[in-house]
Amino acid sequence: MTAPCPACGHDDSNPVGTKTGYCYRQCRSCGVVWTTVALDSEEVRDLYDHYYDHGQFNIPAVAELSLAAVAASFEPFRRAGRLLDIGFGAGGILSAAEQRGWCCYGTELNPACLAHGERRGWVVAADPTADFRFPPGGFDVVTLFEVLEHMPGPDDVLRLAARYLRPGGLLYLTTPNSRSLNRWALHLRWSVFSPPEHLVLWTRTGVRRALARAGFACRTIRTEGFNPSEIVARVRPIPANGPGVSRNEAGMRLNESLSRSPARRALKRLANRTLTLMGVGDSLKVFAVRTGARPS
What we know:
Elements: E1 13-19, E2 22-27, E3 33-34, H1 41-48, H2 61-72, E4 82-86, H3 92-99, E5 103-107, H4 111-120, E6 123-125, E7 139-145, H5 155-164, E8 165-176, H6 181-186, E9 200-201, H7 204-213, E10 216-224, H8 229-235, H9 247-257, H10 262-278, E11 283-290
Parallel strand pairs: 4-5, 4-7, 5-6, 7-8
Antiparallel strand pairs: 1-2, 2-3, 3-9, 8-11, 10-11
């Protein structure tokens, strides 16, 4: 008997292949793709303790612009003025929110990130439940940028978000879309499938069901962004002695190119609206509100 879907709990799934020794399955109900990996705490630390060993906390200018727009969208939810980013990494959204006057809080496992957050004057901790500075129900906005795909199941982190978010507050999260154009073109060859780092690739249906179980009402899910670098590399293979394709670097260059003029920015907006309409963008961008209901 196979493990149930981590998103919706459905116990009917199909195998979709194996990558680096990890078997992926796809839920026949919600379409989420996952691999079940049991990592102990030491293995988790080994995965994430060295992400920022070289202190790479500079946010590219084009990313700063995008994050500033995201932070601006939080304004209708401002009451206490507190924002919590779970898994804040380099601190991009905290920096953008700070510029708009938010009181910024963050959680991280990585020691370098925690030290960076302390230098910036943010309230940061590895475990907010053991830190009195994090008031339960005291946050207007909680964010989860590229976190859910790292978790074998969503319930713990979504319930953590619900614990700190006030009723009516906003949860904003992003995570890769398992029904993107890249997924259909590349299947498990898409570099987003990278176990044991990325364990679950989500769908709109799966996210809605997991959020409802944790006490959230989903308002909007956008599927935005398309990075064709890996598809192009398969059509025009790189020479054996040439540099490999970096999805992140190629995506940043494409984003910079599409942000250089008003006409290009308008084209980017149109492309993202089309990708959302078709549900095939690389990234799920989710706006959900805490309902006040107890998690199921």
